[in-house]
Design brief:
This protein has one domain: MetI-like (MetI-like fold, Orthogonal Bundle), CATH 1.10.3720.10. 63% of the residues lie in helices and 3% in strands. The chain contains 13 helices and two strands; from the N terminus they run ββααααααααααααα. The protein has a two-stranded antiparallel ribbon with strand order 1-2. Helix 2 packs across helix 13, helix 4 runs parallel beside helix 13 and helix 11 packs antiparallel against helix 13.
Length: 316
């Protein structure tokens, strides 16, 4: 509650002082941090709200698919459900999207397929952000020969196409699981984060507060993680958010090519691969998993665009 100041109003000759007037003392608004300022801006953006709702729904699919369907996504009945068309009257029975070429519920496989996409996307993004962020911070802070070695190694790995390199790496695994796909994408996907972090650190380390910290005798670790990292991480967050959707698409592409995830793992890429065999006879088998993949990637791209606009004061 604001502080109150009481003042006596001037009185005329022979009059008693006027009643006291209560005047609220103005209080200065507390400055907000970059994170709070960005959150305040994000809440007003419809693009952020829509993408956030879609992503929360996707995460719920991955964590608790049983809340959305009770049908076994691996169970098939060719005699009854072979390429059965969508039936909108039986949504909760799991045949709202119809059945695929093996008599399995497309709706159930869409729900359960979100788990592989979410796990791969989040784990790959976390991995490339940690590896690329650390290398970029070291290169940008130390400069000189350290920067030269890290930059040239980054350029060498960056020259390897992501999908082509992942195909080569995954061929070395006899059994390909979610974690082997994550490993292959992290090994080749950290280069972009390194470049972004390096450029951001080079800009931030020239600030006055970094110079003051060095003058006061702060150690290298404290300067890098206490002063530089919090102020250089914003561009990396934006790139990582947008790239997450790309890693989900990369996993689906590898699975579609038959070199990514394998049965019995449920993946939208595997379902798209199976649907191409019957696309003329039953195009809906391809439409639903491909549509789910497109919406998921679009949601993360929209979220990244909204975060970028909120973290960049020039775009507000």
């Amino acid at each position: 509650m604001p502080d109150l100041i009481t003042k006596n109003a001037p009185a005329g000759d022979g009059e008693t002082p006027a009643e006291r007037v209560v005047v609220p003392e103005p209080q200065a608004e507390k400055p907000r941090s970059l994170g709070l300022d960005a959150w305040h801006d994000l809440r007003k953006r419809p693009v952020f709200i829509i993408s956030a709702v879609l992503i929360v729904l996707l995460v719920l699919f991955a964590i608790a698919p049983g809340l959305f369907t009770s049908v076994d996504p691996r169970a098939g009945d060719l005699s009854k459900h072979y390429l059965s068309k969508p039936n909108y009257l039986h949504f909760f029975q799991g045949d709202w999207f119809g059945y695929d070429g093996q008599g399995r519920s497309i709706y159930a496989r869409m729900i359960y397929g979100a788990r592989a996409s979410v796990v791969v996307g989040i784990c790959v993004t976390a991995g490339v952000t940690i590896v690329g962020g650390l290398l970029g911070m070291v290169a940008g802070y130390y400069g000189g020969w350290v920067d030269t070695i890290v930059s040239r190694f980054t350029d060498m790995v960056f020259g390897i196409p992501l999908l082509l390199g992942a195909l080569v790496i995954l061929n070395a695994f006899s059994v390909r699981t979610i974690w082997s796909v994550v490993f292959a994408l992290v090994v080749l996907g950290w280069t972009q984060m390194t470049r972004v972090m390096r450029g951001s650190v080079i800009t931030v380390k020239q600030s006055d507060y970094v110079t003051a910290a060095k003058a006061l005798g702060a150690g290298t670790g404290r300067i890098m993680f206490k002063h530089i990292l919090p102020n250089a991480i914003a561009p990396v967050i934006v790139v990582a958010t947008i790239a997450l959707g790309g890693y989900i698409a990369a996993e689906a592409t590898l699975s579609f090519l038959g070199i990514g995830l394998q049965d019995p793992t449920i993946s939208w890429g595997i379902d798209i691969n199976s649907a191409q065999k019957v696309i003329r006879q039953a195009p809906f088998v391809l439409f639903f998993p491909a549509g789910m993949l497109s919406v998921t990637v679009l949601a993360f791209i929209m979220l990244g665009d909204a975060v970028r606009d909120a973290l960049d004061p020039k775009l507000r």
